[in-house]
Write a structure and sequence with these properties.
By secondary structure, the protein is of the alpha+beta class. Helix content is 41%, strand content 16%. It has four domains: 6-63, no CATH class; 66-126, no CATH class; 131-194, no CATH class; 293-404, no CATH class. Strand 8 (159-164) and strand 9 form a beta hairpin.
């Protein structure tokens, strides 16, 4: 490796119109990194070997071949766009443009030269090439017994409004053509199909209620399916109250919610354990009737996806927060064990907690897998959740960004 004297190196830079910044003590050889000043663009790092081979300030070089702003503007506007950027740096720096149909977008000049433009316009052009005709889609709906209400078909993932001819009284429903291809269709036809498979002889339904000590009031004409919350019955301990339930709930062990609340008080509770159970753990089973009500409210369907399966009821305002609010309202301290409270105190806490839970919980029924993903989306199981997060989560699920 040739060793150039520092004085020769410095003179070479000066003769080339640049000022060398690196001192003699820092200069090792022609391949060591040195700094110099470009009068136009400031301090630049290079090696003397590169400088001797003709490599100078990159920005100066770009300026020499730079396309004038006016030419860039003219070319972009010839494509039907408006150039919003006030400066053109180089062909790899994104420019802000305005599409008259879809608004602002950013694109590199070299991409525009290659025929690229507004990304939304591009997707629409691709979609038009691949899109099925409206008449074909309409005929596909007709084959399934549906009347297509929507007058325009955008794409296979865009929802279409339709009416099921068998369930005209249920009004307009919405579905994507993609879902139709996957075998999905009218929600009410689906429920009837499931019900036929699950429908039991009404005598068996009557026997189940009788075996649990309840008097079934509903007749056979009211028994629609095992999931409908329409069977009326009377509990022998609460004969003045006519209650409703589904066969499915009773078959899974649910019963009179009023009895459930009474059975979970004091020493009768399954979690009493001699009074050493923490209060919040003692109170949680009181929610069971309320949870069943929420599941019945949504017809055992996830409110995020519209699907059925293993469900959870999510508190938008946490049960723990409602519990603390209730204790504060009652001016009661939170003691170590439930045995530290009297029967009257426990009953007062339970009644007010259930009332506040009805007022503030804002329940959302979700599939268990969706519930887990929602908590992950919000930062973990111990993090509070907000309605803003719920709205964003729903949007991302709907757009397919989050699978559910």
């Amino acid at each position: 490796m040739n060793k150039f004297l520092f004085s020769d190196v410095k003179k070479y830079f000066n003769d080339s119109g640049y000022e060398l910044v690196t001192g003699e003590s820092e200069y090792k050889n022609s391949e060591s990194r040195i700094e110099y000043v470009c009068p136009k663009h400031g301090v630049i790092t290079t090696t003397f070997a590169s400088f001797k081979r003709g490599y100078r300030c990159k920005k100066c070089a770009a300026d020499k071949i730079k396309v004038p702003y006016g030419r860039v503007k003219t070319e972009i506007e010839s494509l039907g766009y408006k150039l919003l950027s006030n400066d053109y740096v180089d062909n790899k720096t994104k420019l802000l443009c305005l599409c008259p149909k879809h608004g602002e977008f950013k694109k590199k000049y070299n991409s525009i030269q290659q025929g690229q433009g507004c990304p939304k316009c591009g997707r629409e052009r691709i979609g038009e090439k691949q899109k099925l005709s409206y008449d074909f889609i309409k005929s596909e709906f007709e084959k399934r017994g549906y009347t297509l209400v929507s007058k325009e078909y955008i794409g296979s993932n865009s929802k279409l409004d339709y009416v099921c001819r068998k369930h005209k009284d249920k009004g307009i429903q919405s579905i994507t053509y993609n879902s139709i291809q996957q075998g999905q269709g009218c929600y009410f036809c689906g429920r009837e199909s499931i019900s036929k498979k699950l429908l039991l002889d009404f005598n068996n339904v009557r026997k189940l209620f009788k075996s649990k000590g309840y008097k079934l009031i509903s007749g056979e004409d009211e028994y629609i399916d095992s999931h409908s919350n329409n069977l009326r019955y009377v509990c022998p301990k609460h004969p003045d109250v006519i209650q409703t339930a589904s066969y499915s709930n009773f078959n899974q062990g649910c019963g009179c919610p009023l009895c459930a609340i009474e059975n979970n008080r004091g020493a009768g509770s399954a979690v009493w354990k001699g009074g050493v159970t923490p209060l919040l753990r003692y109170l949680r089973p009181m929610l069971n009737p309320w949870v069943q009500q929420q599941l019945q409210r949504t017809n055992y369907t996830c409110e995020i996806t519209g699907k059925q399966g293993t469900l959870n009821v999510h508190h938008m305002v946490s049960f723990k927060k409602i519990f603390k609010m209730t204790m504060k309202e009652l001016h009661m301290d939170i003691r170590e064990n439930i045995g530290d409270y009297s029967e009257d105190e426990l009953q007062l806490i339970t009644v007010n907690l259930m009332k506040n839970n009805d007022l503030y919980a804002s329940p959302i029924v979700m599939l268990q897998s969706v519930h887990q993903k929602f908590h992950q989306f919000c930062g973990g199981n111990r993090k509070p959740t907000s309605f803003e997060q719920l709205a964003e989560f729903k949007r991302l699920v709907k757009e397919g960004v989050i699978s559910a």
